[in-house]
Amino acid sequence: MALKRRSVDKEPTVWIGKSGATKALLAQINRQLDANELIKVKVHKTSLENNEVTEVAGKIAEETTSKIVDVRGRTFTIYKPKKPRPMQPKPKR
Q1: Are 74 and 54 in contact (CB under 8 A)?
Q2: Maximum Cα–Cα distance for the chain, whole Å?
Q3: Exposure of 28 in the CB half-sphere (CA atoms within 13 A)
Q4: Domain spanning 2-79: CATH superfamily
C-alpha cells in the first residue's frame, strides 16, 4: 500500500509510443528502475491497438522482472527493489 501511495504523486518518466515496448525502451525502463525503484509509465493510445494497458504493463513487468503497483487509465506504475551493493572492506589502519 505504501508503494501505491508513493506512486500517486509521481509523474510519468517513460512514454510508450506507437512502436510499443521495444528493446531500447525496455533497457531504458531497466535503467530507471535500477536508479529509482519506482517509475510511472504512460501508454499512448496509438500503441494500444487491440491490447489493454494491463496487458502492456504485464509484459513490461515480466521483461524487467518488476512488479505492477498500480494501473490507472493509460498509466501504470512498476516497482523493482534495488540490488544490494556488496560491502566494501574497510581499509586497515
Answers
A1: no
A2: 65
A3: 11
A4: YhbY-like (3.30.110.60)
Instruction: Residue 68: count other Cβ atoms within 10 Å of its Cβ.
Output: 15
* Helical (H) or strand (E) element with 61: helix 53-64
Contacting residues for 32 by C-beta, under 8 A, at least 6 apart: 13, 14, 39
| Closest to 37 (Cα-Cα) out of 67, 84, 80 | 80
Prediction pTM value: 0.81
Query: What are the pLDDT digits (tens) for 39-79?
Result: 999 999 888 777 789 999 999 999 999 999 999 999 999 99
